[in-house]
Design a protein that fits this description.
seven-stranded mixed β-sheet; 28% helix
């Protein structure tokens, strides 16, 4: 199984538990992302949207185990993924379900899902 990652709106000089109210699921395993019609930063439908948010907003990243991740390092790790791995979830959906109603590939080749997942 893969690791889930979350973006947290960071406005406090000393982040603590109350700062995680605006937590948004980024995705899983650095290659599968969850689309959001709304978030503290607007709609998110692509890796380009996340990169824009990371570059222009104060955001912290943590994983499902509570481990914090440096934003620049996270971006580097996502962009270092092999293109074949980026589309793995999308290909699985097409193969096993026959259609991708809620799933799509963005312009960078990453798998995206319009429904919540973990």
């Amino acid at each position: 199984m893969g690791t889930n990652y979350y973006a947290i709106q960071s406005g406090c000089p000393s982040p603590c538990e109350h700062c995680t109210i605006d937590e948004v699921h980024i995705g899983k395993s650095l290659v599968m992302f969850e689309a959001h019609e709304t978030s503290p930063w607007g709609a998110i439908y692509s890796w380009s949207d996340w990169k824009r948010i990371f570059a222009t907003q104060q955001v912290r990243i943590r994983d499902e185990y509570g481990q914090s991740h440096d934003v620049d390092d996270f971006v580097r790790r996502v962009e270092a993924t092999h293109p074949e791995h980026r589309r793995r979830q999308y290909d699985w959906v097409i193969t096993h379900l026959g259609t991708a109603v809620d799933d799509y590939l963005d312009s960078d080749g990453f798998s995206w899902c319009r429904r919540e997942f973990s």
